[in-house]
Amino acid sequence: MSQTRASQPGALMGFVHRRRRGAELFLLILALAVGVGAYAAVGIGVEGHVPADIVGYGGWLTALVLAAHLVVRVVAPYADPVLLPVVAALNGLGLAVIHRLDLATGDTFARQQLTWMTLGVLLFVITLVVLRDHRILTRFTYTSGLGAIVLLLLPLVPGLGKTINGARIWIGVGPFSFQPGEVAKVLLVVAFAGYLVLHRDALALAGRRVVFVDLPRGRDLGPILGMWLISLGVLVFQKDLGSSLLFFGLFLVMLYVSTERPGWLVVGAALFTAGAGLGYYLFGHVRVRFDIWLSPFAHYGEGTDDRAFQPVEGMFGLAWGGLIGRGFGGGSPERVPYANSDFITAAIGEELGLTGLIAVLLLYGLIVERALRAALISREGFGKLLATGLGAIFAVQVFVVIGGVTSLIPLTGLTTPFLSYGGSSLVANWVIIALLLRVSDLARRPLPDLSAGDVEAEADVLSTQVIKL
Amino acid sequence: MSELTLFLIRIAYLAILWIFVLSAISVVRSDMFGARVPEAARSPQPRGKERKPAKPAPKRRGSPSHVLVVEGANAGERADLELAPVLIGRGNDAAIRLDDDYVSTRHARIAASGDQWFVEDLGSTNGTYIGSVRLTQPTTITLGTQVRIGKTILELRK
What we know:
The complex is a heterodimer of chains A (469) and B (158). Chain A is mainly α.
């Protein structure tokens, strides 16, 4: 800050953000109570006693969460205090619900999910330690765009790709299968943000006006439109409806935020309507989803094709749960196919009721709010766009999947962030949280004080030279 | 396990969940504006050195008097440092108005601190450079330091 500015009692300048690491620790302890408490409640409800491995399980969860907290304390001291606890609580709750479904079906998905969570926290730590300034990512704008497209194309490679449940979005290496689209979405946000921050003036100002919108010039919009069309085309080709919707929404939000032109929303809505209409007439699987959504009970039960079995059982579960739920072990969420991934919100709604489901939704709301908050207070364009894009991923993804489970919109397969069973999604989401913490850390860090003596001013100059951008 | 115990566990777990949600919201609420720092604590007076805000130190020989555009579309334009802080950008309120597509509306500012001059980027799109280094914080400039903004180069002159 220049001295003239500092000497004026500015409206906003009188505030600096506190570190709030103590608040984070307090919330983390509560989050552990949510996670481990759910595990204990599952044991009591299903097996009649507190599970024997509660100490080992709780200890491992605590160690993971505390490790993440300590790393944040050291390398991102000003980072947002709410994000990590909310994520830890969601992850813990998800583990417990998956464990509860395992007990009913005899699988060991919870154990694998815990392994994936460990990997996720590890990558979270690595991201925070390696990436000291998110603006370094602007160097990899086109690289990450290309990387995203390559990752999306990987499942189509013969021998490497695997088709699971009708969608060819997996790659299999040995016994492991991975969904590269989850990583691609992070790379795509980095690419969009890096591109838009350089070209938003040209996108917003140069170009012709057509009906409602100022259409930008082709050379400004071209590269990003290309990246987006290719990824969307790949997803449509792979019949991954959920991810197509996610990428479409993401692109629209970032374009709207960076150019400040509401016309993009009109264009986007028109494109979406056209795309959905076209999809309905061209693709059989889109039409099936629509029919199931409009009249689920015509596709449920004996004498029908029974294609709505999953969503209808999910709705039965939500209704059976009612206001306060059946309690862990009191319902039968395992009746729903894929209850541990796509339909985990139905399982939560059945056993924790509307009260629990609203709490979960509020937690997602908090994640999005904190992401947008980091974007608002960030002092530079790339951080703003990156945080907005990452927040938009969560917002769109939660809307698409929970909207689908509750039959607000047609059902499309996507994971519920942090809750669902699914390694690739969990790991990618932990990295997203690390990026958000990094943006918020730089945004909340107080500005260096320049009004001190000459020596310190010179030190500032030196530190400026060191930062390479 | 009796029915009542299970019911109590169910209620207790929902309570824990909501206590967590509400505490998270209360942390968000208390975080809304950050901590208020007294103005004095935030900009401490320099030790053993008099300061006159908004008024550069008395003219000395060799201290800069104006900012000059040395290269770019507006080469030759100048702004007096008496009127510091000097705003540079494409907007109408800028002291040096640049007709340069790569310059933001409010691009950068040159201001004084003691007898030092600082250039500060105001969150511009393309950044402010000294040499090949993009400014991330206010940086001292001296006579003849070339500050690049878009396609324009500025200097402090006597």
